[in-house]
Amino acid sequence: MAETAVLVAVPDKRQPDTTTQEYLDELSFLAETAGAQVTKRFVQRLEKPDTRTFVGEGKLAEIKAYVNHTKASMVIFDDELSPSQLRNLEAELKVKIVDRSLLIIDIFARRAKSATARTQVELAQYQYLLPRLTGLWTHLDKQRGGGVSQRGPGETEIETDRRVVRDRIDFLKEKLETFDKQSNTQRKSRTGVVRVALVGYTNVGKSTIMNMLSRSDVFAENKLFATVDSTVRKVVLENMPFLLSDTVGFIRKLPTRLIESFKSTLDEIREADLLVHVVDISHPSFEEQIAVVNDTLKDINAADKPMLLVFNKIDQYSTDTSNAAEQQFEGMNADEDAPERPSLEQLKATYMAKMHDPVIFISAQERTNIDELRSLLARHVAKLHYQRYPNQQPVVEEE
């Protein structure tokens, strides 16, 4: 039986209602991806969140009454909670309290398949857990694998637990250093071949494009973070070979500890010669998603690379905004002045005029403009190849 979840958001008073709704839609999608069924959304506009319980006293009483009445199994907050807020909310609501960071880490844990990704996620989990330890984590002693207890004289249980977690964090960091060295060795062996990385917000269709271009079988579905492990495939387009990597998707408020943990995966982006930024143009906030990706690229020192902007899902694009107006929820007012979305033709004209980098509009699902994408990608790979090796013709290996 699926767990039932209540969502809580505390937006700034100046944040538009449509933006609040889009953020809660994304949080709901995250919850569903993690296996929970969302039954209610609560919104409270505050200048800043309450330092003790994140929401105000009256709103907390509303949430508590609803949780008690419906027997909801968890309450999910669209921000990271402090350790004290987490403890106070658990004591008050008597159900599982999950913040946005923990929810994303949990999804990563479910999706991670390789030894590297599993280690990266486990490190992020322990780094999240360490400052939130109460006296309830004595089961962590079992991580030591038995033997004589290393607990010192006069040391409390929580101090023991913290030491266990710190030891585990140190162990995982060492393990990741080993994986990083192996990854660096693999990347060095690929020198001489142009490297292209697919980047973008989560669930924009990167894996579908990867499968189409490389004829591989990368897992892809309509859920957030369907791909956590980076995948590298050799591709040949118009007699031009290159390496194409599919990388983990970015998201608003991506936990910093996850960015730090996924260093080796993000190195595929840092060391790429060309970035293919995939955008879901059908999403109402696609421009904000572009900004999130660009900001994340800056954070990992990869914003200065040549980039090809690919607007995907043109088959799902609609100028109709009436659906958003129908999906009101408590704490939100209808935005009657919301402007109508421009047509796809207007967007094409706008982006092709204002972007310095190449732009193309496709539907990976419907295979629309895919030949144009292949041709554009091949031209840019060839340009990079000849810049690096002006006197060398590309050599295509026999399959």
Topology:
Elements: E1 3-9, H1 17-33, E2 36-43, H2 57-70, E3 74-77, H3 83-93, E4 96-99, H4 100-111, H5 115-129, H6 157-188, E5 195-200, H7 206-214, E6 231-237, E7 240-246, H8 256-261, H9 263-270, E8 274-280, H10 286-299, E9 307-312, H11 322-326, H12 344-354, E10 359-361, H13 370-388
Helix pairs in contact: 1-4, 4-5, 5-6
Walkthrough of the structure:
By secondary structure, the protein is α/β, with parallel strands linked by helices. It has a 6-stranded mixed sheet, sandwiched between helices. Strands 2-1-3-4 form a 4-stranded parallel sheet, sandwiched between helices. The chain is globular and about 70 Å long. Residues 135-155 and 324-328 have low confidence and may be disordered. It is 43% helix and 15% strand. The longest helix is centred in the middle third of the chain and has 32 residues, at 157-188. The protein has 13 helices and 10 strands.
